[in-house]
Each structure stands twice: as structure tokens, then as C-alpha cells.
Give the backbone structure.
Amino acid sequence: MKKGILVLSMLVALVGVLVVPMAALAVTTTDVGGTMPDVTLTLAAPSGITLGSLYGATGDATGASATPGTVLCLMNPTGYTLKINSNKTDGKMQETGSGTLAAVLRVTPTLGDGTGATVSPGSLTDVTVTTTSNQTVGTTTASSPTETGTNAITLSVKQAKQITGVPTATYSLTLTFTASANS
Amino acid sequence: MRLLKHLKLTVALALAALIMWALWPLTASANPETLEVTAPSPITLGSLYGATGYATGTSSTSGTVLCEGYANGYTLKINSNKADGIMQEPGNQKLANALLVTADLVDGTGASATQVIADDVTVTTGLQEVGHTTASSSGTNNIALSVKQAKQITGVPGATYSLTLTFTASVN
């Protein structure tokens, strides 16, 4: 009997002692979350160039894009690289329906700073764009999230050699721009 | 003699327990002791690597600490469920980014709060003090919480990341 009272009284005392500190602690949680965005790389070509005359009376024909192209790169902290090539070997325009070489074009594309990352220009000044070179127009080295956005591609073309083709025949060349995110 | 000794001890303990048991509700009734903490609302960072800068977020609703009946005030602490406050991609242990958490204990109807975490602290799994009170008055203080991304992302595009922050209030 007395042992029972002793044990009971000790239990009651223990509970009484423990209740106070247990009531003096409060815990709660909150969550923070987000989603990793996708890398966005969008490329638009400069507007087409029509050369007035491949062999003008006053000199070599020249032309420039009225509207520059653009490169939009988002979410890639290492930036991107822009390259260019043509659909004709050695950048030579060919007369339609004929294998005759017409003219060699000198193409000067430039990747300019915009709202995007600072650009490191390539070495393309009056170079012949070919199908094999896939030459670098410029690169960006974005080092922070703020260095993303749109850069401009300006393009100019000039005739480099005299024409040997047929008068009034048309000639064309397609230039391809490729932007790839740096790894 | 020994039986009498045991009997006295038992009676004394029983009386002490009964007095404690009897007085506790009376004391609580006369001077209720309450310590409750509610969390700030969750924060969803729009984009962990935004186009215009590091992602930031603030709880739309503050948390609260209600403290009554404790003359020495209370202390509020915070920790996270991830070491170094680093968020991890679920199912992939690749580290995503570190967050800087700013948690402030703000004066309210309760005691004047002393802020400890003032700005830009990386919350870790260890308990860090947000602030404490020392006043004898009672009432509610607020918990303001904001988060910002501290490093660039190296995780997988499209993956989601999360971190749980725990607030603990304890009386001084």
C-alpha cells in the first residue's frame, strides 16, 4: 500500500515537473521552393540583302542588312557562341541553273552588345564564309544572371571579284547562323 | 521505526505532489502561460536563376509569436532541413543553389524584440537565433521572412527545389 502511494506520488510529481518546460517551447515550419528554369536560346537572322548589281558601274556591289539579327540567351551562366557558314563552297555565288562561278562575297557579320551578355567578337572582318569553316562570329561569357538577354547580329556583304557570269542572270547565297550555349 | 520513517516520506511526497498538482491549474488560471509560434507563409521563388537577377521572395503573411505569462520573455531560433541552406534537387543529390535567408523578429503588441539576424544569413541545420525579448509585457510579435538566391544554378532545367525552415520559440 505504502509502496503504491510512494510510486504514485513520485509519478505525479514527475509529471508536474515536466509539464512546465514542455509548455515553454513552440515549433513551426515554413517552406521555400522554386523551379530551375530552362535555358532559352533564340536566334533570328539579319534581314536579306539584295545586291543592286554584282558588278556596278561605279565599283564593287555592296549591301547591308536593314534589320539586324538577334540572339536571345537566357538562363545560361556560361553564355553562348555564334557561328556562321554558307551553302556554297568558298562563299562563291553561282548562276542559277548553271555551274558557272559568279562572284566571291566578303561577309562581315558582327555580334554586338545588347541587353545581353558582353560579347567577345570573333575575327571575322572581310572574310570568305564557306560551308566548311563554320566560323565564329563572336562569343559571350556571361558570369552572372544579369548577363543574359538579346545581342544583335549586324551583317554586311560586298563583292570581291569581277563577274564572269551571264548578264541579267540571278545569283544567290544562303548564310546560316548557329548559336549554341557554352558548356 | 523504519516503517514510520517510510510512512512519513511517502506522505510528504504525496502531499508535495498533490500541492503541485493542485496549484498548477490555479496558477495557470490566474496567470496563463502561453507560448505559440506560427510560421510565415511559404515562399515560392519565381525562378532560381532569373533573367534580370537573382531570384528573391518574401512571405506574403508574417509569422507570429504569442508569448504571455513569462516574465523573462522568449527567444526565437531558426534552422533548415538542409545543411548550409543548400537546396537539393529531389531524386538527385546534385546541389542547386544556396539561399540567403533574412528572418526578423518584429515588435508587435508583445515585448520589444531584439533582432539578431539582421541581414543575409545562410541558414543551416544548426539553430541560429533570430531574436529575443526581455520585457515583462505580453503579446504578439511578428516574424518577417525573406529569401534570395545567393549562387548560380548548376542543377537540371525544369527541376523543382525546396527547403523547409523551422522556427523554434522558447521561454528565457
In short: Chain A is about 10% helix and 45% strand. The longest helix of chain A spans residues 2-23. The interface with chain B takes residues 2, 5-6, 8-10, 12-13, 16-17, 19, 23-39, 74-75, 77, 144-146, 148-149 of chain A (CB under 8 Å).
